[in-house]
Amino acid sequence: MASTSSTSSLSLLSLIELPSLRLWTALLPLLYLSTCLLLRSFKLFSSPLKSGSITSDVLAQECVALIVIIYLSASGFIAWFELFNVNIDDAKASPFFGYSSFVVNHIMSPITAYQGWNSILSLILAESRSFQMFIHHLLVFILSLFGYDHFLHYWAIFFFGIVETSNIPLTIMNIVKLAVGEEKNKYAIYNINRNLFAISFIVIRLIFWPYYFYFCIEQAVKLYMSGELRSSYFYVFTTCSSLLTLLQLFWGVKIFANLLSGGGKKSKSSNSNSNSSSNSSSSSSGGNRDDSKVTKKE
């Protein structure tokens, strides 16, 4: 088994030379700005939200997020089940230090660019300004950087890929809500995705996430005690991943509270928070969206 002290073909210093990362870093702002310009040019969704943000700007953010989230989710399942001749044998043999070019190009690169871009948007757009989501984006961004030094490729498949599946219905909900406003509950697509979000969040983030997180921490402790894992990697990984896990549990409690509140309260809560959506996420996790706010909306 290799350790993080060994020389890797993808060091943190060579990130700028990685084609897939450069592609995603350039693509996300381009997609967002072009979508904003398109919507504004036709004067679509031009009304301001309660936060002061223009609806079309936030809608553009959600549309770009949906593209990235679907891509990450699909990449996660492809790698996890080794579909389409994707081979992750090295990563499976060494979950912490094994290498997978597929993971680097199709999970690490998009999640790094996505969370970095989300961190910027959370400061620019008033609608996305949330301390807990900024911290979430930053934690995932930091963890993703370690992936370029042959670290966590196997676990990234789940936490940065598959976990994003629960954000697909959430993002669709946000898009519908921005498009139709208070009338969202009249649309089947909104109500169906609301239920799908609650189910997928509970299954993926409250059942599978803690289960795999336990094995990650257990392996990390063993590798650290044996001297195979640098102390800096160990402390950053355990701190960031523990904080992300606490966020999942925090959001999960809100989802359960919402489910137990009943339909009437859900509808009232949904209307009172109709303009409080934020960008993703995470799972992931990986790439999470603002699940805590949505649980109030559901």
Q: How would you explain this protein's 3D organization?
A:
The chain is an all-alpha fold. The chain has one domain. α7 packs antiparallel against α8. The radius of gyration is 19 Å and the shape is globular.
Short structural description:
This protein has 298 residues and is mainly alpha-helical. The chain is 68% helix and 0% strand. The protein has helices at 19-41, 55-80, 89-93, 101-124, 131-146, 153-161, 167-180, 188-225, 231-261, 263-272, 291-297.
SS-derived structural category? mainly alpha
Number of helices: 11
Number of domains in the coordinates?
1
Structural shape:
globular
How many strand elements?
0
Fold topology:
Elements: H1 19-41, H2 55-80, H3 89-93, H4 101-124, H5 131-146, H6 153-161, H7 167-180, H8 188-225, H9 231-261, H10 263-272, H11 291-297
Quick tags:
11 helices, disordered N terminus, globular, 298 residues, mainly alpha
